[in-house]
Amino acid sequence: MFSTAFLDIPALAGASGTVRLPGSKSISNRVLLLAALASGTTTVHDLLDSDDTRVMLDALRALGCGIDAAGSTLRITGIGGQLKPGGPMLPLFLGNAGTAMRPLTAALSLLGGEFELSGVPRMHERPIGDLVDALTQLGCRIDYLGNPGYPPLRIRPVDHGALVLDAPIRVRGDVSSQFLTALLLALPLAARKDIVIEVVGELISKPYIEITLNLLARFGIAVQREGWERFTIPAGSRYSSPGDIHVEADASSASYFIALGAIATGASGQDSIRIEGVGADSIQGDIRFIEAARQMGAQVDSGPNWLDVRRGAWPLKAIDLDANHIPDAAMTLAVMALYADGPSTLRNIASWRVKETDRIDAMANELRKLGATVDSGPDFIRVHPLERPGWQAASIRTYDDHRVAMCFSLAAFNPAGLPVRILEPHCVAKTFPDYFETLFSVAQAPEVPVICIDGPTASGKGTLAAEVARLLGYHYLDSGSLYRVTGLAMRRAGLSAEPQHEAQIAALAAALPLHFTEGKVLLAGEDVSDEIRTEAAGMDASRVSTLPAVRAALLALQQRFRQLPGLVADGRDMGTVIFPDAALKVFLTASAAQRAERRHKQLISKGISTTLDSLRSDLEARDARDSSRSVAPLKPAQDARHLDNSQLSIEQSIDQVLNWWQEKQPFKPA
């Protein structure tokens, strides 16, 4: 998951391959709560691992549920609809998870304890008054701790014998379907007689209620439905564990890759995006996004647990759609509309305004930054397509809304070949922590940006490059470790740096499963950082570096590190030999005296005895060898920026490189 302040997505030109989606947030949190309220143990397979589910799990642990995790499988031992008596007031922080706040408000109101429910500031702006009104009709005791109608809330215990069950419980359905879902999930706790719920106004997002009813049936609650206006929970209803339950992949998340196939796979039909984990027979309403995508021209094939998508019509066809049935996935259509043959209108989407942010305003604002003409109103948005000359490079504000971030990644396929900057990309952790990694695994870019940082030994280039890579969310290549790792692989294979073993060593070098992270060198997942820094490893590195086939293999290996969204590479010939077309080349240096002092401190901290004079002599001698060698000598690239960090802190050096990088970007301030 990207934890950077922003993520620059270079211009993307195509996409093909297979993606496996995470579990559905809507299904995951419903299943977790039902398993917690039921008796016995429920084994949940393929659960979504995200911010929202972690919030729910933390709350359930606090309530006394037994939770045993093993990978994507979870065993939940429920509380059987009863809390242990006499517990203290329990504060629960629920972040910005509406799928936790609303159902837990209802369930905790009937469980008999005392609770305080709070969240992030945006959660305290998301309405809950209609749900609280419905619960207080029943006799529940709920107080607002801030603005009336909004969290945070104080919930006090109530005697079930005092609940008013004779009259129907009335709840509005035109603001959020989560209010009705919360009542349906929680009211079996109090069903000593039939409980009737009546929906006031038109019920929006009906497919989400279908998910709720489907899952309640799996847990033994057979709700009787009369249209979409009246729901009856039968007297004596009891939650019963189904034993095992599988969570479908998230249909809302599928929308981004359905759109990707429609936009990016090309008209030849040779390539496609295959989506695994969800099919057209999904119980999730957002799977009907397929219908809208087909209307716009996408070709979609489906099986029991997969979708296959490719471009059909191009440009896409404009649509005018009542999107009430796919409120989350419809956001993706607003970005697809940029690639259409006329204006597209999404109607009946008032619920967008009470989501993680006001999504109508958010989408309109950010689409305009890209250059689009957008009209919007209380419950609609109209997006005009963009011709190539009209596209603009934009910094997309995400409003801490995961769906805004994911939608606008699709703008990187613009015909103008412009990059897109996504601010606060980590917000996708709410439902799809690995979204960008998944996107980059199937997307292709005409040019993946590279920053090269070359320089002499002990100049600090490794520390600088690794931190720049972290801040940009780019991959990192520590080229200086490659010959050392090759030497280690050679020794482990029982080979020696002799001509008769050259081909075998080159084959090892070409396939090194290397990864650099958090200052560590990982070989097939094993941390070999210390092992390759020994004197013996250095000698092995020197020997293998003389073998031409090994040098050629490592050249190809280094170039394969150039992957989306970008690469920062450090070494001695990154900008001159390995990546001569790099967008930014930095030649980092410092005086021999300063470098010797840094190396001296480093060695002394490790308990290695040495002197400043000897270190300085060694560094000067190595500089002379490196700069005069016949193959790839140490020298600045002609277009390199020179950075002498003799008197700079690492933070100052990082700032300078990032400033140079920003100068090359086309983005206007967000």
Automatic annotation (TrEMBL):
InterPro entries recorded: Cytidylate_kin (IPR003136), Cytidylate_kinase_dom (IPR011994), Enolpyruvate_Tfrase_dom (IPR001986), Enolpyruvate_Tfrase_sf (IPR036968), EPSP_synthase (IPR006264), EPSP_synthase_CS (IPR023193), P-loop_NTPase (IPR027417), RNA3'P_cycl/enolpyr_Trfase_a/b (IPR013792)
Compartments reported by the entry: Cytoplasm
Stretches that traverse the bilayer: none
Chief location category: cytoplasm
EC number in record: 2.5.1.19, 2.7.4.25
Pathway entry: Metabolic intermediate biosynthesis; chorismate biosynthesis; chorismate from D-erythrose 4-phosphate and phosphoenolpyruvate: step 6/7
Single Gene Ontology BP annotation: pyrimidine nucleotide metabolic process
Enzyme class: transferase
Active site: D328
Residue ranges occupied by any Cytidylate kinase domain in the UniProt entry: 451-660
Residues that bind phosphoenolpyruvate: K25, G98, R126, Q178, R359, R403, K430
Self-association and partners: Monomer.
Family per similarity comment: Belongs to the EPSP synthase family. Belongs to the cytidylate kinase family. Type 1 subfamily.
Cellular component GO terms, alphabetical: cytoplasm
Domain Enolpyruvate transferase: 16-439
Gene name in the database record: aroA
Name assigned to this protein: Multifunctional fusion protein
UniProt GO molecular function: 3-phosphoshikimate 1-carboxyvinyltransferase activity; ATP binding; dCMP kinase activity
Keywords: Amino-acid biosynthesis, Aromatic amino acid biosynthesis, ATP-binding, Cytoplasm, Kinase, Nucleotide-binding, Transferase
Catalysed reactions listed for this entry: 3-phosphoshikimate + phosphoenolpyruvate = 5-O-(1-carboxyvinyl)-3-phosphoshikimate + phosphate; CMP + ATP = CDP + ADP; dCMP + ATP = dCDP + ADP
The protein's role, per its UniProt record: Catalyzes the transfer of the enolpyruvyl moiety of phosphoenolpyruvate (PEP) to the 5-hydroxyl of shikimate-3-phosphate (S3P) to produce enolpyruvyl shikimate-3-phosphate and inorganic phosphate.
Positions contributing to ATP binding: G455, P456, T457, A458, S459, G460, K461, G462, T463
